[in-house]
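Two quick folds needed for the group meeting slides. Do the first one here.
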Amino acid sequence: MTEHAQQSVAAAELPERGQPLAGGTFVTRYWLNGEERALVLLDNELAGAWGKYGEDVSGAKSFSDGAANTRAMAEAGSDIAVEALELDAHIPSYLEGSLLMAAKADGVIALREDRWHWLSTQFSADYAYGMVFEDGWLSYYGKSDGRLVRPVRSLPIQ
């Protein structure tokens, strides 16, 4: 894994949305599993298949916890999940993708609009969710299809 020193952020040290934080851009505050967190978008762009068509990844069904989904994807052999984890990041969940779209619509961040991006939330053994950031359209696609990923970090707010 890439060395990444910042594992949390103090509430008083949070920058304005759209400003640098933890090697990326601070997107927003949100709650995950009873803990307030800071969502950070990295500049890296990954590309590849979500995983194997027809393979159920039982640990990748969370609509909110992208880090847990990404770990499950990597354990199942997903190359893009392994790449994201090597960046000390993860593939956004359904919720985190929606938060990215809201931040883009608010002018806080810029996202590529010409391609679909994978989200880490599995729809079924054959499909996983994806989003296009031109208009925020969500759908699901065959896991073996090639799509882009914009990895994120989620830091606990102290």
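Then this one, please, same format:
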Amino acid sequence: MRVLLAEHDHALYADLLRAAQPDLDLVISDDPSELATLAPDCEVWLGEPGLLATVLRKGHQPQWFQSTWAGITPLLQKDLPTDYRLTRAVGIFGQVMAEYVLTYMLAHEREVLARLAAQVERRWDNHAPRSLAGRRVLIVGTGEIGLSVAQFLAPFGVELYGVATAVRELAPFREVAAMAELPRLVAQADYVINLLPDTPATHDIYDATLFAKFLPTALFINAGRGVAVVDADLVAALREGHLAGAIIDVCRQEPLPARHPFWTAFGLLLTGHSSAPTLPPLMAQLFLDNLQRFKDGQPLRGEVDFSKGY
């Protein structure tokens, strides 16, 4: 079984895969033109959706494609085929996403930026810090990554609430509500963490109407997808004091254009889509596990339902 490996980090992935399975038949490239030539001889593809979407568009497709990204938006374009098996990267982002979220929650409570400013001004700042204990945290998107973030946050004594496509009971959340309840829960949350995927149903959710319901002391963290936020409405909400601040990891256009208002928005910190990078050793393990499942005719981890977009 020949595997097409299409990754900018392909040398590292090849070393990891061959160390674990020396007989694996790998065909490797990160050049779109070369990939289109190699693809017809490979029934399994492993790599970046952005690279391989171009190959799909040329009329080639695999039996199974393992994405190295959690998001598979480039593969959902209307002109691309969907009659092949596609799996997302799952089970490898929970801890790194939790570390990202926790970093900025703790920085907010401990007022790290204000203390840095005080140091620059040579002003002794010894006012008492705040704590995460008792804070209400709303995680919008309670799938695998959202649940993992919640599990990491639980020991800090926060009250956890979630929003999903439907009501469910899910520990450690006190409540997981449907999307229709988002305005009610936002109005009670000290932290609103967006982890929703990019689907038609998740566009423009965070608009002026919703931001007006935020607590003025709340911090908004978007590590899901940029299309969930109406950019101008967030900038205005920050300026008008509807929320205390925003940590924005993902944007509608990346890299962010130089003239975009996010660069200079009051209370907004950009983190450059760095929240949860793919860790090659974990990704290699996931692929090899799914490869064995594929050979054995077993269900694949992270298989995508094209009708849902995830």
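Slide caption for protein two: The chain has two domains: 2-92+278-296, 94-270.
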